[in-house]
Amino acid sequence: MGGLIEITLGIMTAVGGFVDISELVFAAQAGSRFGFALIWVFAFSTIGIGCYGEMSGRIAAIAKQPVFNLMRQRLGLRLGLVTLVASSIVNTITCAAEIGGTALVLHLLTGWPYALLAVLSTLVLMAIIWLTPFKWIERSFGLLGLAMICFAVATVKLAPNWGAVAFGFVPQIPTALPAKDLVVFAYFAVAIVSAVMFPYETYFYSSGGIEENWKPKDLKTNRLTTSVGFGLGSLLAICIMINAAILFRPLHIDPQLPGTAALEVAIPFGKAGLLLALFGMLFAISGAAVETGLSTAYSIAQFFGWEWGRYKRPHEAPRFTFAWVTTFVIALALVLTGIDPLQLVEWSIVFSVVLLPLTYLPLLLIGNDRKYMGEYVNGRLSNGIGWFFYAVLLVAALAALPLYFITSGGQT
Amino acid sequence: MRATPAIVLTALLGWSPAAADDLSDIRSVRTLAAEAGAVIRLQAQHSVTETYARTMKQEARKQLAQEAQDAKAPQLRKIAGQAISALDDNRASALAGIVQQLFRMEGPHGRAD
Q: Could you report the predicted ipTM of this complex, rounded to two decimals?
């Protein structure tokens, strides 16, 4: 019974924690711009993050190796260090975007000044990390983020053409679009792959596995969390896209204001729907802020072999503590410069995709290494999917920056 | 529903940064006006909270003012100014008219449904 509760909680946490500000922004924009035509990219990328998430959890349970420890071993000191610096920058920008998003949602709820809310929310998030055990941090944000299910309920209420939705799951490129819009379509496809497969998610997930001292008996929970949990979380993002296609597209809205996504629930359900949507967004986005802040500290501490982990008291892992506190301070400073959080989201998405191949290569290599993994080495399916997605990520990484500049971040 | 890489390559090679900037400006003003119009309509129907409506309109106004200042095309600067006036007066129908005008201005660059 206890095991079942644990699995259910793990899945629910994964669902509630799947959507962050980048998925919210890109799903709504993609739906309003291209209808259902990009649904398959979300579904496709979810298979990728499910595969790599499962691999990273299995490696954490069996080899007890976090991602950045593997990176130094497998990529070498120089390339590992380049990856560390780049990922720390991207994680910090992402953390800033999530803090900015949290402040914006609170601004929409309270009307208080945005800068004040950014400072207050950063302080509250830091206090939560300081005072709360890892499991509670992960679970509380994930479970409260389940309020995002209201977007799925809105989809049902809006009654889309389910046949057309189902067709959206079939890989397609809408050639009826003008050629230049096809380039924007390609940009959105790459951005969605990046948003779903954000590197910080793997860093956080595998570090969490080590924090919670996963063992071989936890592999079932790991498999279910990364398949069912991530799959249902991805469905939520797809619902946001479907709602945008139904509600925003006819009005010629390509959401530029972060609060616009909440209208997807306000239109069918009124004020109650709006408040529920904002509540869900608040916890989904602030949960991601915590994950990105901690991921930076995990990465740095693991790479240099410092004491790390939220299972230790802050003074027992002082350099780790200093790293996450510094990440939050720099992220807050970025927000207070007045940069639009959506601009930060775009930067983090584009630079993340460039990093993805470096993040996932060590996982593939260790997952295949019998010396570390013994009987739990990657199977044929895991390897096949892993290497296939690795090739996809290489192409996406090469295409990301040119597409970003050519399309002015999808605005043309 | 299949596109060849050649189509994408043609689109990439035929890209004009200046035209892309203009189109980007038009799209920004169009969607901000559309978002503001939607909020005004929902506010009138009491479907959103007053705080939400006020802050969304403030943000839309701020970004429209930025577009009115930064847009390269004088006509677009003027339209952005008109959108701000319509927003200040809570005229959703005027905003809808502006959105349609801008959508037409996007011309062959616009979305194909």
A: 0.91
Cα angle A177-A192-A264, degrees, rounded to a multiple of 5: 80
CA distance B24 to B30: 10
* Spatial distance between the Cα atoms of A59 and A55, rounded to a whole number of angstroms: 6
**What is the per-residue pLDDT across A170-214, written as a single tens digit (0 to 9) for each?**
999 988 888 888 999 999 999 999 999 988 888 899 998 998 899
Task: For residue A48, give how far its alpha carbon lies from the nearest alpha carbon of chain B (Å).
Answer: 23
Closest-CA residue of B relative to A411 is: B24
Q: Residue A261 corresponds to which tokens in the numbers above?
A: 């996504």
Cβ B1–A278 below 8 Å, yes or no?
A: no
pLDDT recorded at residue A133: 84
**Residue A378 and residue A140: Cα distance in Å, rounded?**
32
Q: Say yes or no to pLDDT of A244 above 50.
A: yes
Chain A neighbors of B53, CB-CB under 8 A: none
CB contact under 8 A, B1 and A257: no
Report how far apart, in Å, the C-alpha atoms of A25 and of each of A256, A286, A350, A402 are: 8, 15, 14, 21
Q: Which residues contact A26 (CB under 8 A, 6 or more apart)?
A: A188, A191, A192, A195, A349
- Give the pLDDT band of residue A364 (cuts 50, 70, 90): very high
Q: Are B31 and A177 within 8 A, CB to CB?
A: no
Phi, psi of A37 (to 5 degrees): -65, -15
Q: Find the mean pLDDT for residues A352-366.
A: 89
Q: Which residues of B touch A173 (CB under 8 A)?
A: 1-3
pLDDT digits (tens, 9 = 90+) for B60-76: 999 999 999 999 899 99
How far is it, in rounded angstroms, from Cα A198 to Cα A292?
A: 10
For residue B96, the distance in angstroms to the closest alpha carbon of chain A comes to 8
List chain B residues with CB under 8 Å of A254.
27, 31
**Phi-psi category of residue A160: left, alpha or beta, with phi > 0 → left and psi -120 to 50 → alpha:** beta
Probe site for chain B from A117, A180, A271 (most B CB atoms < 10 A): A180
Min CA distance, B106 vs chain A (Å)? 10
* CA pair distance B86, A118, nearest whole angstrom: 31
pLDDT, tens digit, for every residue of A120-146? Answer: 999 999 999 999 888 788 888 989 999
Query: Which token pair is A229?
Result: 């949990």
Question: Residue A385 above 90 pLDDT?
Answer: yes
Closest CA to A288 of A334, A345, A343: A345
Partners of A270 on chain B (C-beta within 8 Å) are 46-47
